[in-house]
């Protein structure tokens, strides 16, 4: 089992379906947490299943009418399957790796908490992701991964919740994150 802590930067570009124009958003750094279960094969390949929760606060969202929203967040929960290739000597303490995977975005949630738009939107979809980093194994049981990851869910249709204006928006959802993961081998 792996425990994950990390920081993420979400990138948002959303288009309001009921209004003409696009809104641009600037997200602050956020956090990532989750759990991973997997298996290593031939001391070079790893296959992992994961769940990750990510959230980022907005710095601002500039709407097509010239108004600005400065309070809100963009969050997601994802189930993923990833494959990794580890480089270097099998018994080396430090080994670089690369990986790729697919994820089901169980929920992508956009909360806007500032006039003129106040409300929540949510949707789901699939995403692809690329990873790279280095693993450090100080013992046979413990491993620490330092990883950079890019995830792209493309355009996601999000429906309004709890009284949001405009019944639906399309949002482009992608993020870059850097994590540190601690793994204990059973």
Low-pLDDT parts are 12-19
Order of helices and strands: EEEEEEEEE
Rg measurement, Å = 19 Å
Largest sheet: 8 strands, antiparallel, barrel
Instruction: Give the distance, in angstroms, between the N- and C-terminal Cα atoms.
Output: 8 Å
Task: Supply database-style keywords.
186 residues; mainly beta; Porin; eight-stranded antiparallel barrel; 0% helix; elongated
Summarize the structure.
The chain is mainly beta.
Describe this structure in words.
- By secondary structure, this protein is an all-beta fold.
- It has one domain (2-184): Porin (Beta Barrel), CATH 2.40.160.
- It is 0% helix and 80% strand.
- The protein has strands at 2-16, 22-41, 45-62, 68-69, 72-86, 94-114, 117-136, 142-161, 168-184.
- The protein has an eight-stranded antiparallel β-barrel with strand order 1-2-3-5-6-7-8-9.
Break the fold down into its secondary structure elements and pairings.
Elements: E1 2-16, E2 22-41, E3 45-62, E4 68-69, E5 72-86, E6 94-114, E7 117-136, E8 142-161, E9 168-184
Antiparallel strand pairs: 1-2, 1-9, 2-3, 3-4, 3-5, 5-6, 6-7, 7-8, 8-9
